Amino acid sequence: MFEEKSMREILDALHTDTEKGLTEEEAAKRLQEDGPNVLKEGKKKTAAESFLEQLNDPLICVLLVAALVSFLLKEVSDAAIIAVVIIVNATVGVIQEGKAQKALEALKKLTSPKAVVRRGGTIRELPASELVKGDVVILETGAQVAADLRLVRTWNLKIEESALTGESLPVNKDAAFQAAKALPVGDRKNEAFMSTLVTSGRGEGVVIGAGMETEIGKIASIISAVPKEFTPLQKKLADLGKILSIVSILLCAALFGIAVLQHRNIMEMLITAISLAVAAVPEGLPAIVTIVLALSVSKMVKVHTIVRKLPSVETLGAVNVVCSDKTGTLTQNKMTVIRYYVNQNIYKASETAPNMPEEFLEGMALCNDAVITNQEELGDPTELALLRFAEGNRFRKEALETRMPRVEEKAFDSQRKMMTTVHRSSQGFISYTKGAPEMLLDRCSKIMVNGKVQSLTEVHKRQIRQTVDVFSSQALRVLAVAVRRGEKEVCEDGLTFVGLAGMIDPIRPEAKTAVEQFKLASVRTIMITGDHIDTAFAIARELGIAKKIDECMTGEELEKISDVKLKEKLKKINVFARVSPEHKVRIVKALKETGNIAAMTGDGVNDAPSLRMADIGIAMGITGTDVAKNAADMILTDDNFATIEKAIEEGRSIYENIRKTVLFLLSSNFGEIITMFIAVILGMASPLKASHILWINLITDSLPALALGVDKNDKEALMKRPPRKAKEGLFSNGGTACTIFYGCLIAAISLTAFLKLPWEVLAEQQKAFTLENISMVFQSSELLTRAQTYAFTVLGISQLFHAQGMQDVHTSIFSRKRGFNPVMAAAFGVGFLLQAAVTEVPALTAMFGTAALSLEEWGALVILAAFPVLAHEIFVLLETLRSQDTKGKVINEVRQEHS
Ligand code: ATP
């Protein structure tokens, strides 16, 4: 056990060195020998297992019985068709599952953690999978521990180990701790474990276990057995599917009962009723939704968004408030010091102040965790800006650190808004503190002016505050630097004020466009920042988020008001400044309680609660800590605000596609049921054979449904609409009417096609068009086969046309501004050809019991089948006329008012 061993023993055993780490060559050799530092996945299902799983469905079992019955009745072709349907259905299911799985695996790779290591004496960031035993890993606040480590150094290090121990309170870690005996994981204070999260402090450790050898690796098999998570929509659809299954089965049982009473061929009607039940039940719906959601996850990656939780794709479309950080999200996070204030004067960054206090530049370089090497810049942009400024003035961090090594520190946190480091120098201990000026100023009692330390008077303070206001109103981020000489322990009181640095962080131009787009889409943007109110307002004004300063509120003001008052204020406030992470939780809670669907961005450890509280928690991919990423639903890989707009657009589009697919499938199935039901109730022959129903279910239904699932919507139009209401279901806004209308229309045209022949025959014979006479006509099996072929063709092809209208119920198919959907074109073409093949290819005609059709017959049937799209065009025309009428009325009213 490593916790009992001394540091020396461990380092000797692992042949490593804490100062330099492993060499690159040695690390590569160990990686080759031991393999990558990853947790192995549980055993994957084989294709055969997935296939059998697909067959494990009650409806498929019913269908298998139907196939057996057909076979026993020597209806070999029916049995064969049913068998083909079952096989194709299961194969499609396996392929869909495979695709969804692949999308999720690709996602896992994207979210895989990184690790900061010391190799060959230099600090590098590399994928956690490349860590090997003996590597020296550096832990920062917010990071996820990438392997099991024996800690070498710790500075107030606290780690949350709930992934391993279930204990959610962070535990203190101490490199100096040595166990007398082997200890349980939770008590090993000198070790850090893979997958746990650093909540505060810093540390360094040597890798003692990697991959499956880690503590989490030992229980990885338990973790990989986490049950699948279903989205609310999937759950709703599964429930809907259950209700529809029961209704369809009852209807089909009724159909069968009536058929028995009417003394029809019992076996034939049994198979038809079973087929109808199987065809009518939208058992494919949850599968289609899963594949659409899973595919959307890979689509989202293209717009720089990683979706960690599938349900958030749905929720995204309903978001109506986006609360965003400022730094790095709305701004570029490319900080540069452009002004500074020392010795009671303001200077440009390009100038060197006379009597420039060394402590100012030393503080910037030493009280700083960023690293600048020849190849790269690592660390927080604020700190990098200060480091660049100090180095530009010839104060190099490395050289300073050799002269004045860091002995103690208190890390930055967004609550205190400052950070302190203590250094040993030839003149004793010296500590540097840097942070938000208001926070620092209250802790200063002296000021350094031209090398002399004086008491800090109210006059000094007023002048400093005025300078902060001047800098802030120019949208600069301001940081103050202070020193203290004396003790080794960190003390953030009685400091000596040295100076201020003003940094520019330009806005992201694309964020400005995104804010405008959000306004059109009725999505509100709220800026929540830890920065000064004037800096925040200056940036908010530039971005179009706020116009007046009274739309801004500070964390201090927020603390003084009640939750009720906050909810009231939230109607007007668009900028929250100098807030701490707890305030974010209050804001998002108040937003949610007033009926909003809120997205919230965050990056720090303390942002995790608000990210969890928001309807959509969004973590930053570049600057975000692993803790924030773990708590978020989504990660922005480019930290860019404009990406949220793209993600919401995508979310709306995906929801729209799912809605279209569901309504299309249900109206089509409804059409099939009504066609059969009306015919049987009226005592007519069955318009469709069992094989016809299954064919429609398999081909002309499924292909366009899939195409609708991946449809390209007119994004511009989508983003001009207000967001969907949270409680809005799939059938709101005319969904039910649409399903019933098109179901009835499809039934009407199919029955018309079915009755076309008897109508013609009876007209020729000058007989009345009665049910009795129709039955008489159908006694001719040749006529019946032809009439069934008509109904089958119209029903099949009408679905292809219906799907065209369903792509966008509000616009004509001739004037759509959407992108071309090749899947839809292919679904239409292939569906049409396959439908034609069933009547025109002799082998298939025999199997399906259909008749070959003439060109003339085809023409008439296609016209009939096009009725759904014709109805769609008429609706669009009426809608356009109505909206023109309303527009005209409004113009007239305005004119009248003016005259
Ligand atoms: P946002 O929440 O929009 O990202 P922010 O980055 O300003 O804004 P915080 O990171 O909480 O929010 O910073 C709050 C304040 O703390 C800053 O305005 C700055 O004055 C100070 N500050 C930021 N980074 C550091 C740091 N590394 N060391 C010391 N003080 C800092």
TrEMBL record:
Protein name (Swiss-Prot/TrEMBL): P-type Ca(2+) transporter
Membrane topology label: Multi-pass membrane protein
Transmembrane segments: 243-263, 269-295, 662-686, 692-710, 730-755, 787-807, 819-838, 858-878
A UniProt-annotated Pfam family: Cation_ATPase_N
Family: Belongs to the cation transport ATPase (P-type) (TC 3.A.3) family. Type IIA subfamily.
Protein keywords: ATP-binding, Calcium, Calcium transport, Cell membrane, Ion transport, Membrane, Metal-binding, Nucleotide-binding, Translocase, Transmembrane, Transmembrane helix, Transport
Cellular component GO terms held in the UniProt record: plasma membrane
Superkingdom of origin: Bacteria
Entry EC no(s): 7.2.2.10
Domain Cation-transporting P-type ATPase N-terminal: 1-75
Catalytic reaction equation(s): Ca(2+)(in) + ATP + H2O = Ca(2+)(out) + ADP + phosphate + H(+)
A GO biological-process term: proton transmembrane transport
Gene Ontology molecular function terms on file: ATP binding; ATP hydrolysis activity; metal ion binding; P-type calcium transporter activity; P-type sodium:potassium-exchanging transporter activity
Keyword set includes Aminoacyl-tRNA synthetase: no
Localization, UniProt: Cell membrane
Originating organism: Faecalicatena contorta
InterPro entries in the cross-refs: ATPase_P-typ_cation-transptr_C, ATPase_P-typ_cation-transptr_N, ATPase_P-typ_cyto_dom_N, ATPase_P-typ_P_site, ATPase_P-typ_TM_dom_sf, ATPase_P-typ_transduc_dom_A_sf, ATPase_P-type_domA, Cation_transp_ATPase_P-type
